[in-house]
TrEMBL record:
The keyword Oxidoreductase applies. This is Sugar dehydrogenase. Pfam families: adh_short_C2. PROSITE patterns: ADH_SHORT. Belongs to the short-chain dehydrogenases/reductases (SDR) family. InterPro entries: NAD(P)-bd_dom_sf, Sc_DH/Rdtase_CS, SDR_fam. The keyword Oxidoreductase applies. GO terms for molecular function: oxidoreductase activity, acting on the CH-OH group of donors, NAD or NADP as acceptor. SUPFAM superfamilies: NAD(P)-binding Rossmann-fold domains. CDD domains: GlcDH_SDR_c. Keywords: Oxidoreductase. The lineage of its organism: Bacteria, Bacillati, Actinomycetota, Actinomycetes, Kitasatosporales.
């Protein structure tokens, strides 16, 4: 039966990440918010990064604290090197170290290629790709300094890059975004290869269509949603919690041998749905 209703269950309060320290970028909205809350629910202390919208970030912090773990909000633009360096220095100061970096912050500045300004191109690459590079680099330094603490995790650290199905699906009218996510794929794999000997696991989660502010126009009318569902074999738009659950499990030691992988969380969007009825 086709349904668009939200069916996602948050992970039960298993202590999957108990004692681990996590930072989620862009965590006052959408996927980042659900992920920060999800990591807190399963036992992690969490830094809620935001670039604008302090109130929303403080709300997320309070929700995480209600699980009995620590959390604070930190304002930083992930595309600015000095701000990312300061953000990681602070988490080490406040929490002692960091175990999980979720490089989630991202945005779109859509235009047809002939209308796309260089500023739109740079903005998306700066936040979606350079921002993830800076966050991964600074987290890796701390992971390598500290090494493995077996009672906390099998790994010295985990980096999870928030990618997109558009790391492999071309997307007309969004060349800056698709290029940024294609870049995330190769950045993630290269970092995974380089950092694995240090027992640092680098992986990506690639969401399909998730109901968040970034893509509101794709699902906020019945017509738009019906058109979107034609691209989703599982016939429902995803919820931010679908991604939060995947991130929490991927960051946990249950996934200790998963290195350099992309976990597609997309209801089958990458299965060439146009071929389901022929081709
Ligand atoms: P969203 O707009 O709700 O959240 C994006 C977050 O990133 C916001 O908190 C925003 O403030 C933050 N951000 C933007 N620029 C920033 C900067 N310079 N520094 C720090 N934070 C910044 O959208 P979302 O859907 O939750 O997107 C989160 C991630 O998921 C993005 O990387 C996006 O590309 C990816 N994604 C989303 C979908 C989807 O369907 N929603 C699909 C695939 C991938």
């Amino acid at each position: 039966m086709a349904t668009t209703a939200s069916e996602t269950r948050p992970l039960a309060a298993l202590p999957l990440l108990k004692g681990q320290k996590a930072l989620v970028t862009g965590a006052n909205s959408g996927i980042g918010k659900a992920t920060a809350i999800g990591l807190g629910r399963v036992g992690a202390d969490v830094v809620v990064n935001y670039v604008a919208g302090k109130e929303a970030a403080e709300d997320v912090v309070r929700e995480i604290q209600s699980f009995g773990v620590r959390a604070y909000a930190h304002e930083a633009d992930v595309s600015q090197e000095d701000q990312v360096v300061a953000m990681i220095a602070r988490v080490v100061e406040e929490f002692g170290t960091i175990d999980i970096m979720v490089a989630n912050a991202g945005l779109q500045r859509d235009a047809s290629v002939t209308d796309m300004t260089l500023a739109q191109w740079h903005k998306v690459l700066d936040v979606n790709l350079t921002g993830q590079f800076l966050c991964a680099r600074e987290a890796a330094k701390e992971f390598m300094r500290r090494g493995v603490v077996p009672e906390v995790s099998c790994a010295a650290g985990k980096i999870i890059c928030m990618s997109s199905v558009h790391q492999i699906i071309p997307w007309a009218g969004h060349v800056n975004y698709a290029a940024s996510k294609g870049g995330v794929l190769m950045m993630m794999q290269t970092l995974a290869q380089e950092l694995a000997p240090h027992r640092i696991r680098v992986n990506a989660v690639a969401p399909g269509a998730i109901r968040t502010p970034i893509n509101r126009s794709a699902w906020d009318t019945p017509e738009a949603e019906e058109a979107l569902l034609r691209l989703i074999p599982y016939r429902r738009v995803g919820d931010p919690e679908d991604i939060a659950n995947a991130v929490a499990v991927l960051a946990s030691d249950f996934m200790d041998y998963v290195v350099g992988s992309t976990l597609y969380v997309d209801g089958g969007m990458t299965l060439f749905p146009g071929f389901a009825t022929g081709g």
